[in-house]
Amino acid sequence: MRVISVFTLLFITLSAFGEEVSFITESEYASQLYHSPRGIGCNKCHGEKGEGKLIASYKEKGEKKEFRPPAINSLDYTAFQEAMRGRQKGMPRYYLTQEEIKALYIYLHPEALEDVD
Ligand code: HEC
Asked: Is 83 touching ligand 1 by the criterion CB < 6 Å?
């Protein structure tokens, strides 16, 4: 009897969790991924909507320098995918899946929802 109730509890817990996951929409998922992509959020460097951001300005050997990750909201899908698969100087490597890259692209280009695959 005890064993059954433990399994029942586990089943209810898992079902509840499953329900919760399916409650988020595709765009909520994409937004979450953009802010927390198994590493430092893209928004921290590229701005809330991928508009680019000035992170720091400093002097090096008397020369004014800036760390300003670029805008990423006007690349085409092919360029975006290539950038995500390659190395970017000053950016962590994420090893994202195709689906994740697509979700991020759609987050940055909601109007492209129908066009990317
Ligand atoms: C620590 C800061 C940082 C974080 C976090 C970061 N990036 Fe970057 N990213 C950069 C920098 C700096 C460059 C420019 C590299 C260069 O100029 O060579 C860049 C370049 C890019 C490019 C290429 C832009 C172009 O014009 O070719 C894309 C696309 C991009 N990042 C997407 C993302 C996405 C999506 C995320 C989150 C998963 C992310 N980045 C997180 C700093 C960051």
From this structure: yes
